[in-house]
Amino acid sequence: MKDKIKIVLIGAGSRTFASCVINDIVSNPDLAAVKVEVWLVDINEDSVKRMLDYAERAAAYRKSKVQIFATADRRQALPGADFVIVAVDIRRHELWEQDFRVALAFGFRHVFGENAGPGGLFHALRNLHIIMPICRDIEAICPEAAVFNFTNPEAIILTAILTQTKLRAFGLCHGFYALWESVKRLLGREPETLDIRTAGINHLFTFYKISDPVTGEDLIPEFRRKIAENIDSFDNLTRFLFEKFGVLGYHHQEHTGEFIGYAHELCTPLWDFGIETCPIPPHLDRAVTTSDLYWARGKEDRKALPTFLADNNKGQKRFDAYIDGTSPLDEEFMKPSGELAIPIICDIAFDRNIRRPAVNVLNTGRYIPNLSEDGCIEIAAVFNRCGAVPDHAPPLPEGFAAMLRVQHSVHKLMVMAYQEKSRSLLLQTLLTDPVTNSASKAEKFMDYMLELQAPYLPEMR
What we know:
Blueprint: E1 4-10, H1 15-27, E2 35-41, H2 45-62, E3 67-71, H3 74-77, E4 83-86, H4 92-105, H5 117-141, E5 146-149, H6 154-164, E6 168-171, H7 176-187, E7 195-201, E8 204-211, H8 220-229, H9 236-245, H10 253-256, H11 290-296, H12 305-324, H13 341-349, E9 354-362, E10 376-384, E11 387-390, H14 398-420, H15 423-432, H16 439-452
Parallel strand pairs: 1-2, 1-4, 2-3, 4-5, 5-6
Antiparallel strand pairs: 7-8, 7-10, 9-10, 10-11
């Protein structure tokens, strides 16, 4: 059992994510029993100083003895780190909008453009350009540290880290909660009281076990029956995948649709983050922004947007007031985030042997037997001082597995393209992606994006 733990959070300028991690650290009773040192790192000095101030107030609120430091230089923070959490991006919404709209302008009928498809691949290339130098610094300065990546596209980023460095790294995402919501709604039971197991890749997975851990009762037949009885409560693509392939996992079609070439036939062609999906409220005191649309995403009644945005405006100001210190902290704001990074850090540090519902790893142990061994998968795992011990799932339904194997090829090609700085391999990646529907347009799109986003991309030869 460790008596001293050093945690480095890279990308700590993000108010929402960083405050969640900070709250989880200072509130964790296991960490209260040992000496904990936390370093907040962000290239934006003003942002990281603001989050340091917040962290000190959060620690004081919890009466935590955690030592907290901040820097814009990750090399100053990394020596002696036991755990490094990485959640970085650059000009996220502006560049994402370019990814989506430029790809659409070239005729690629994608549905989201964040993690796959032509737009998502440029998101991957930008973030590889940021992440890999960070990982090489970790490898040089604290090679024994466990690394937790939250940066999207998760599967591509983690494939690169685990194949191009010697780091012990894991990818984390809260997407498993989407399935848990379905279980709770349809079975009327709290997911925490059940044994729920899933397998697949990040944002594209399915269940293979739902049982009562006390009686051992298999609840999958009942769950499938409830899905069929309530099939109209799911979006078009989620419904299609269940009816045609027998799978259900991340039931938000914008994410699952990223990986499927025909998803546009089932999903709206409108971008859920775009101004085209919402009315323009004439009485608001400011323009509707992409950030507003992010918060408004998922609202069934778009006509309610003006009220929603006005309420969200108040909520955002309240959130900012907590972070900036103009409002005192309270239990509602300090509640657990639900993210898995800090619980898993405790599992490893204290050798707890606890199963966590989803982690991204390479499939080196054939944890999913009909997927590639060098592909990144998402699966439940037990964590202890040795790291992750992934579950072994049964073979996935073959039609579904075939979709995932294509994605594994895309991921590997993307990593090769980045490593070799190769336009040829980047084009192969685009041409392999199921959303790409034109060879000539793919090359023109690639050339246009490499020039348009040049300040954020590696130089490709």
